[in-house]
Amino acid sequence: MLIKQTVQAKQQRTEYMKDKAKYMTIWTEQVIEDFFKESVIDKFISETYMSLFERKIKDLCEETIPAQIKADIQQVEQIQRDRRSSKTITREFKPIQLTLQDIIGQLKLYGLKFVTKDLIDVAHIRRIREIGKGSFSTVYSALYPATGNGREVALKILTLRFADLYSQLTELECLR
Question: Which residues form the signal peptide (predicted)?
Fold first, then answer.
C-alpha cells in the first residue's frame, strides 16, 4: 500500500510540474468554494465585526448615553438657576459669536476658492436687467452662454460688506 501511494504521489508531482496553472486554478476554485459558503461568511462576519459592534452598542448604552443625559440635566439645571436677562447673555457672548462667524466664514471662503468644482467664471455671464433689490443682495436677469444660444438665469449679487463673510457664504450655500 505504501509503495502504491508513493508512486501516485510521484505521478501527481510530475503532472503538477508539467501544468502548475491547471492545479493552482483547481486549488483556488476549491478554496473559494469552501470559503464563500454562507455559514463560513456568517461565522467570519460574526467573529470579526459583530462582537466589536456589540461591545460598542453596550458601551454606548451603558456609558456614553447616560453620561450625556447627566450632562444635559446639569446644563438644564444651570440654565434654570441663571437669572440673567437674554440681553445680558447675548451681550456677553457676542464677541465669541463674531469671532466664530469670522473663522467659519474664512473656512467657507477657503472651501469655495480651493475645494469647490462647480464655479462659473463671472466674465461669462452678461447682466440683462435688475429684477429685485434688497439690503442683502441684488438679483439680475442674466444670460449664461453655457449652452449654444445661452440660457437666461437669475444672478444674485450679495451686497453686504466683506467683513460679514459668514452671512454671505451661508447665503451662498443656500443658493447652491
Answer: none
156 assigned ligand-binding residue: yes
Indicate the number of domains in the chain: 2
Residue type, 172: L
Q: Is 168 exposed, middle or buried (0-12, 13-18, 19+ CB in 10 A)?
A: buried
Structural contact between residues 138 and 160, judged by C-beta atoms closer than 8 angstroms: no
Cell numbers representing residue 99 in the block: 469671532
Residue 141 maps to a domain: yes
> For residue 13, how many C-alpha atoms fall within 13 Å in the half-sphere facing its CB?
6
**What whole-number distance in Å separates Cα of residue 134 and Cα of residue 121?**
24
135 and 79 in a single domain? The answer is: no
Q: What is the pLDDT along the chain (176 residues), one digit of tens a residue?
A: 678 788 888 888 888 888 888 888 888 888 888 777 777 778 888 888 888 888 899 999 999 999 999 999 999 999 899 999 989 989 999 999 989 988 888 888 888 777 777 677 777 788 889 999 887 788 888 888 876 677 888 888 777 665 567 777 777 777 66
Within the chain, strands assigned E span: 126-133, 137-144, 151-158
Q: Which CATH number covers residue 120?
A: 3.30.200.20
